[in-house]
Amino acid sequence: MVLIRRFEEKAGQLYGLGLIGGFCHLYIGQEAVAVGIQSALTPGKDSVITGYRDHGHMLAYGIDPNLIMAELTGRAAGISKGKGGSMHMFSVEHKFFGGHGIVGAQVSLGTGLGFAHKYKGDGGVCVAYFGDGASNQGQVYESFNMAELWKLPIIFVIENNQYAMGTSVNRSSAEDKLFRRGESFRIPGLQVNGMDVLAVRGATEEALKWVQGGNGPILLEMKTYRYRGHSMSDPAKYRSREEVQEMREKSDPIESVKRHLAAAGVSEDEIKTIDQSIRKIVNDSADFAETAPEPAPSELYTDVLVETY
Amino acid sequence: MGIEIKMPALSPTMEEGTLAKWMVKEGDSVKSGDLLAEIETDKATMEFEAVDEGVIGQIVIPAGTENVKVGAVIAVMAGEGEAVSVPPPSAQAAPAPAPAQVESALPAAPEAAPEKAPAETGTDQLVTEAKAAASDPAVPAGTSYTKLTVREALRDAMAEEMRADERVFVMGEEVAEYQGAYKVTQGLLQEFGPKRVIDTPITEHGFAGVGVGAAMGGLKPVIEFMTFNFAMQAIDQIINSAAKTNYMSGGQMRCPVVFRGPNGAASRVAAQHSQNYGPWYASVPGLIVIAPYDAADAKGLLKAAIRSTDPVVFLENELVYGRSFDVPVLDDHVLPIGKARIVREGADVTLVSYSIGVGIALEAAEALAGEGISAEVIDLRTLRPLDTETVLASLKKTNRVVVVEEGWPVCSIASEIMAVCMEQGFDDLDAPVQRVTNEDVPLPYAANLEKAALIDAGRVVAAAKKVCYR
Fold first, then answer.
1. In this complex, is the C-beta atom of A23 within 8 Å of any C-beta atom belonging to chain B?
2. What is the b/e burial string over B32-60, where b = at least 16 CB atoms within 10 angstroms of the residue's CB?
3. With 60 as the cut, is the pLDDT of residue B83 above it?
4. Best label site of A295, B63, B171, B405, fewest CB within 10 Å?
5. Which domain holds residue B357?
């Protein structure tokens, strides 16, 4: 979680310096969701797919920060050879299937990944993440219907950070209890405190039991909060500074873990050491991403098609 | 005078059918809703019900008769209390107004109309006889051929690939238990079972996404759209997810999916069901777009599409599904993607086309031959990547090109071929390239307007003469 926080802060800085371009959506504040869920999954077996706010997810799955940061700066060493950028990153090796820029598209795609798990009988489960904004897209419900109809092994996770860009859940959703959004498809839903990594992990373990028991999909609504704007270019005028401050002070997911660790007898020094080692990883990734060469011009024409015709 | 019972049209494209079985015999009383007969079309066997009350006077067409034209009298029914009198077949062309028929309420003047075949429509002019085509260089010499409809060829292609590769499955609306809305997937459920032949809800956006996701997850989906008109609901998944992800992932993410289904104008289904999407998809890097004409190409290219590691849009045509062509008898008839085929050799002018337009072009070539103009006909077969080499080589030979496209003119495949001829073949051109396309309007319903909107051989002949300065 600290790695995600520091990495995203650094990405924000590099954006300010003009080293990262385009859209850049930071995960700061939401770290407990990806980390809590990932800790319950089986790497190499379960698959994951998400939207464009994807850097934090990738770090949670153990993907090399250098490759992610170099993608953000558009370098050849980036995980997508510099051709995807912030919103389009993938690691087939880690069964991380993106990184998708079209709001809601990943829900149908994730349902297809769940379909593939069931078809192959590999015992895997797909976790498809989407936001409170995406939860109003039509294809989400088309996917819910098929997932339940065919009892696909998939966990739908709504990361409800309470704002779809600048529109709050209450202003956009007739049913704002998003965990109930699967009810008419008979998909059970749980609302979870997404600022508490242990609550997230516990809920995920329950969800996995349900899905692995052949009961079909389940929906988890993670109540969370992003501290930064929707993207780097969002001034976030739709909410007050006080609201953000209050959330940081009272509900910060990292502070809450620190309190757990202190209670378990972990010393301040040990935590500082972890902090410092993470700062070094992040600084190294930034150095790497700044100095790595840009893609060769010939890369413009590669990877359009796999085969030659 | 009894009520004439005529061979019904049971689908928009049906022109004739088989009278499979009579459910009544002469002398039976029937009332509205009773089953009269079973009629087989090329798509399905349908039950035919009585509309009027009465007694079956005479069965004119015996059970088992094939190729009964729509509108032909198949039986005559006596009204209540009436004696049955059947006019001899030769007299049927000009009957007296029948009291029981609705038409009798109309002024009696031009009486030939009710007995005429259904109004001539625009899609009639798209339906051409299968003309002899030059042999495909990809088929070894000495291969024997069998007659198959395009529909059967497509089904065989899927079945063969499903037998060969466990990862291949078929998904779409009505593909399994209904046996396919256009019967293209007939028999697949019976052979491969519900795990691999999957009926979806009516949810194009969703199941297109499921197909793309399944392909990313390592499977080889064949996603059927009932028509490509409905795929507009799903076009985001086809373009943003299927076509672009390999590039955006730096070559990590494979998406070996095939989207297939009928495309272009069908018969009298009007604007929302009659669009040719070839130019749309062919404009997208990252997609393969195939639009075959005959059964052999349909089979060989669908097999290639299923085997491809890239996402493929495979555009079929409803009006061609029922046409029969020679298909080579080979264990594994796979054709190369991205290769056009010269289907008729000629020296004076090149007609470039694809899909149903190839039939029109061949018909026009035949007519032109009668006027001493030798036309070469090229079937593009694949729209992306486009085989410009074959087109340019033919241009070099004939120095004149006409593009024939059942689709709109603006930003079309025709536009693209014209651009290529201008950019790369300018010095070979003896006349400006002409395009024969549908009119630049949404396709109308009325038979006469539909006819005016769609391409026909006459327009191709005129354009060919124009470029030949004849």
1. no
2. eeeebbbbebbbbebebebeeebbbbbbb
3. no
4. B63
5. 341-467
Range A200-222 average pLDDT: 98
Kindly give the pairing relationship between strand B341-344 and strand B349-353: unpaired
- Specify the fold of A2-291: Rossmann fold (3.40.50)
* Contact check, Cβ <8 Å, B246/A306: yes
ipTM of model: 0.93
Give me the CATH number covering residue B273.
Answer: 3.40.50.970
Specify whether B310 is located in the same domain as B412.
no
Q: Do B301 and B152 fall within a single domain? A: yes
Please report residues of A whose CB lies closer than 8 A to that of B309.
Answer: 306-307
Greater pLDDT, A4 or B10: A4
A contact residues 211-250, partner B, Cβ 8 Å cutoff: none
Query: Beta-carbon neighbour count of residue A270 at 10 Å?
Result: 11
| Three-state secondary-structure class, residue A179 | helix
Q: Which residue in A92, A145, A304 is closest to B203 by CB distance?
A: A145
B252 with A109: Cβ contact below 8 A: no
User: Is B376 annotated as catalytic?
Assistant: no
Pairing relationship of beta strands B54-59 and B197-199 according to DSSP bridges: unpaired
Q: Find residue B224's DSSP bridge partners.
A: B172, B260
- CATH assignment of the domain containing B373: 3.40.50.920
Q: Model confidence over B318-364: pLDDT tens digits?
A: 999 999 999 999 999 999 999 999 999 999 999 999 999 999 999 99
Mutate one of A71, A106, A306 to test the B interface: name it (highest B CB count within 10 A): A306
Does residue B248 register a pLDDT over 50?
yes
Q: In chain B, which residues have their Cβ closer than 8 Å to the Cβ of A108?
A: 205-210, 212-213, 237
In this structure, the answer to whether residues B220 and B288 fall within a common structural domain is yes
- Read off the tokens for B395: 């241009």
- Chain A residue with Cα closest to B387: A309
pLDDT of A232:
85
Looking at every residue in chain A, the average pLDDT score rounds to 96
Q: Which is higher by pLDDT, B119 or B460?
A: B460
Q: Identify which of A90, A113, A119 has the shortest CB distance to residue B249.
A: A90
Residue B184's pLDDT is 97
Among A47, A80, A108, A307, the residue to mutate for chain B (most B Cβ within 10 A)? A108
Q: Is B204 a catalytic residue?
A: yes
The pLDDT value recorded for residue B81 is 57
- Structure-derived torsion over alpha carbons of residues A14, A20, A26, A28, reported in degrees to the nearest 10: -10
Close Cβ partners of B193 (under 8 Å, ≥ 6 residues apart): none
User: What's the whole-model pTM score?
Assistant: 0.89
Chain A residues whose CB is inside 8 A of the B218 CB are 116, 120
Tally of structural domains, chain B: 3
Judge contact between A156 and A107, C-beta under 8 A.
Answer: yes
- Name the residue facing B206 among A100, A142, A307 (closest C-beta): A142
Residue A27 Cα, gap to closest chain B Cα (Å): 21
pLDDT tens per residue, range A67-80: 999 999 999 999 99
Rounded Cα–Cα distance for residues B216 and B256 (Å): 8
